[in-house]
Design a protein that fits this description.
The chain contains 3 helices and 10 strands, in the order E-E-H-E-H-E-E-E-H-E-E-E-E. By secondary structure, the chain is an alpha/beta fold. It binds xanthosine-5'-monophosphate and magnesium ion. The site of xanthosine-5'-monophosphate (XMP) has 14 residues, from strand 6, helix 3 and strand 9.
């Protein structure tokens, strides 16, 4: 039996999406993606760290040939007052002419993916689509077209299934939200 509550560092979390609910939805998403990518060999772009479990589960349901790339973002303060600038690290493939599926754990403001898309488009891929397990529609500030979304969730902080609170909780098979 899955626990209803978890404590990570100083904070308490309560169950939000059960393991079986997540697994069922991931399978459904994969079936939709299977139809769209029939006959193609896309590059699956896993955005570390948060997406490692979602990517691992998703690719095992795919029935087309694929390659997987793992990238991460380094955030740093820009020289101008525009705030944070992020740069993608670890990309090895030449994506020119390729079909790319970005796999993200959660879209919050959309800042991360907005920047990712801009950077990737410059490399002239044939196509780019995004799949995100979670989206927080109320927090969205950037126009990020997400073709495949697992769950739309309220603007609560969540952990588990790859997502962390200060690097803890990534291993939880279910998703938990911060208790008020
Ligand atoms: P943006 O605003 O760029 O944010 O869309 C996306 C990144 O922010 C992190 N994030 C979270 N991480 N629980 C987490 O563990 C959350 O509720 C949450 N909301 C945003 C995450 O790293 C994501 O890639
Ligand atoms: Mg993340």
């Amino acid at each position: 039996m899955m626990s209803e509550h978890v404590k990570l560092h100083d904070k308490s979390f309560q169950i939000y999406l059960e393991e079986s609910v997540i697994q069922e939805r991931v399978k459904e998403l994969a079936q939709t993606i299977n139809k769209d990518y029939k006959g193609k060999t896309p590059i699956i772009l896993c955005i570390l760290n948060g997406s490692f479990i979602f990517t691992a589960d998703l690719v095992r349901h795919f029935d087309f040939p694929l390659t997987v790339e793992f990238v991460r973002y380094s955030s740093y303060e820009g020289t101008s007052s525009t705030g944070k600038i992020t740069k993608m690290l670890g990309m090895k493939s030449d994506i020119a002419g390729q079909d790319v599926i970005i796999v993200e754990d959660i879209v919050d403001t959309g800042f991360t993916l907005f920047n990712a898309l801009e950077e990737l488009q410059k490399k002239s891929p044939n196509s780019i689509q995004i799949t995100s397990l979670l989206v927080k529609p109320e927090a969205l500030k950037y126009d990020v077209p997400c073709a495949y979304v697992g769950f739309e969730i309220p603007n609560d902080f969540v952990v588990g299934y790859g997502l962390d609170y200060d690097e803890h909780g990534r291993d939880l098979p279910a998703i938990y939200k911060l208790k008020e």
